[in-house]
């Protein structure tokens, strides 16, 4: 998010240098307001940790008692947070703590809504703004060329091995030629492993709390062993898949570079 903002800031600075009499853009003020709002939230959270913990316990208790409304609230918060560039990993962990494995389809639903919302906003509302920002990134230019050749396969690889931050990618892909259905399908399917990992972390936290508070009926050794084996399996799978995807992206990048050299060498 902050790297994305820096690109936008550099663009604004260069434009203002070229046109010194031009008034500041509303976009600059919007970024400033957003940054101040985020800083205020962080400052309030740090200085009111006890209150935040109490509110979190109250919220989780309410969700336990109102499962349907809590589920809808989670999906809505996740979708809005994704569109607004908030890091949603912590929300996934909290969802796993509150809902257990039920959080997996809820998080996927919210993420799918957020990803498609950001994609459509970049394509139809903020296209010129986003396009100017991402075109200065050489890595994105290479990815754009790979998308023209491989389409949804590159989207899937980028979701599994995020060489571009998750929230930035949602907007960046909106200014490419990828169609909506391949984007939405590949994005939704390929975030599932990561969702499982973060939800699992939250579920482990909830299970450990039950174990050490005496609420769990399962034996301590059996429960801890199951948690450890399951977590290790998920991590090993993600590391293996990520390495394979990164290798495939490097091969595709080399192929695109070779094709460009061949086209440039033609008379």
List its salient traits:
13 helices, 83% helix, disordered N terminus, transmembrane helix, 267 residues, mainly alpha, disordered C terminus, VTT_dom
**Total domain modules:** 1
- Main sheet characteristics: none
Strands, total number = 0
Task: Report the total helices.
Answer: 13
Q: How far apart lie the N and C ends?
A: 43 Å
Shape: globular
Strand fraction equals: under 5%
Question: Could you state the order of secondary-structure elements as H and E?
Answer: HHHHHHHHHHHHH
Enumerate the spans where pLDDT stays under 50 for 5 or more consecutive residues.
Answer: 1-9, 12-24, 255-267
Instruction: State the helicity in percent bands.
Output: over 70%
Radius of gyration: 22 Å
Summarize the structure in short:
This protein has 267 residues and is an all-alpha fold.
Could you explain how this protein is built, in words?
This protein is mostly helical and 267 residues long. It has one domain (66-252). The longest helix has 46 residues, at 220-265. Helices cover 83% and strands 0% of the residues. The protein is globular, with a radius of gyration of 22 Å. The chain is built from 13 helices and no strands. The two termini are 43 Å apart.
């Amino acid at each position: 998010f902050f790297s994305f903002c820096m690109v936008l800031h550099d663009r604004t600075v260069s434009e203002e240098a070229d046109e010194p009499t031009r008034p500041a853009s509303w976009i600059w003020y919007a970024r400033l307001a957003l940054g101040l709002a985020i800083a205020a939230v962080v400052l309030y959270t740090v200085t009111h940790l006890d209150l935040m913990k109490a509110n979190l316990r109250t919220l989780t208790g309410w969700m336990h008692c109102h499962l349907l409304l809590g589920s809808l609230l989670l999906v809505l918060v996740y979708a809005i947070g994704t569109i607004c560039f908030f890091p949603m990993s912590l929300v996934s962990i909290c969802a796993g703590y509150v809902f257990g494995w039920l959080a997996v389809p809820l998080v996927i639903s919210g993420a799918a809504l957020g990803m498609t919302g950001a994609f459509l906003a970049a394509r139809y509302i903020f296209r010129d703004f986003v396009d100017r920002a991402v075109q200065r990134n050489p890595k994105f230019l290479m990815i754009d060329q790979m998308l023209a050749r491989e389409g949804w396969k590159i989207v899937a690889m980028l979701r599994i091995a995020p060489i571009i931050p998750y929230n930035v990618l949602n907007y960046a892909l909106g200014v490419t030629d990828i169609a909506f259905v391949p984007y939405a399908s590949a994005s939704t399917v390929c975030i599932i492993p990561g969702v499982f990992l973060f939800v699992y972390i939250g579920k482990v936290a909830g299970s450990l709390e039950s174990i050490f508070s005496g609420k769990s009926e399962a034996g301590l050794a059996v429960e801890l062993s199951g948690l450890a084996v399951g977590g290790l399996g998920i991590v090993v799978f993600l590391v293996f898949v990520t390495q394979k995807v990164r290798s495939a992206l490097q091969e595709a990048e080399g192929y695109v570079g070779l094709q460009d050299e061949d086209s440039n060498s033609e008379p």
